[in-house]
């Protein structure tokens, strides 16, 4: 394979990790946001105050994009791409981006359930965030373990 193509493929890993994680974050926050709007509507229809704390659930999936950016800056662009490391950088970016993005997507789905439950009962805010934190741990593991991979 041509050296220039190898370098471009390795550099694509950095683009992939950020793009795929951002897609997951947007999707997760969108799903949670729709549930938040529905929960607030039900509160208004029942004459209850709409809890602003629900916004925290909606924003939870956004942190995965930050983890991807850290991986991009601290690992994928910190080491020059060479014919020897291009496949590791490519795979780390694509597979890491998918894993981080899926973490964000499923955190958003969990956050949607949390919006519904908290909007209805006004209880369980901390417990809901604990569960969302467990989902986020997948993205943190991907970041941490990727940082240990030698390039």
Molecular structure report:
Helix 1 (3-45) runs parallel beside helix 4 (86-121), helix 3 packs parallel to helix 5 and helix 4 (86-121) packs antiparallel against helix 5 (125-147). The mean pLDDT is 97. This protein has one domain: Four Helix Bundle (Hemerythrin (Met), subunit A). The radius of gyration is 19 Å and the shape is elongated. It has helices spanning 3-45, 54-59, 63-76, 86-121, 125-147. With 151 residues, the protein is mainly α.
Q: What's the mean pLDDT score?
A: 97
Q: Could you tell me the strand content as a percent range?
A: under 5%
CATH architecture: Up-down Bundle
Low-confidence stretches: none
Shape: elongated
What's the number of domains?
1
Name the helicity range: over 70%
Biggest sheet descriptor: none
Radius of gyration: 19 Å
Count of β-strands: 0
Q: How would you spell out the order of helices and strands? A: HHHHH
Give the termini separation: 19 Å
Overall CATH class: Mainly Alpha
Q: Total number of helical segments? A: 5
CATH superfamily: lithium bound rotor ring of v- atpase
């Amino acid at each position: 394979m041509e050296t220039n193509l190898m370098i471009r493929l390795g550099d694509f890993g950095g683009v992939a990790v950020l793009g795929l994680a951002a897609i997951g974050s947007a999707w997760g926050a969108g799903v949670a946001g729709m549930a938040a709007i529905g929960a607030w509507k039900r509160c208004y229809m029942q004459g209850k105050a709409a809890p602003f704390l629900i916004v925290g659930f909606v924003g939870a999936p956004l942190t995965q994009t930050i983890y991807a950016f850290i991986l991009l800056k601290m690992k994928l662009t910190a080491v020059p791409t060479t014919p020897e490391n291009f496949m590791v950088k490519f795979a780390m970016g694509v597979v890491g981006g998918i894993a981080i993005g899926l973490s964000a997507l499923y955190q958003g789905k969990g956050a949607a359930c949390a919006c519904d439950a908290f909007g209805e009962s006004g209880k369980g805010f901390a417990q809901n965030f604990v569960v969302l934190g467990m989902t986020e741990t997948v993205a943190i593991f991907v970041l941490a373990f990727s940082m240990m991979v030698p390039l």
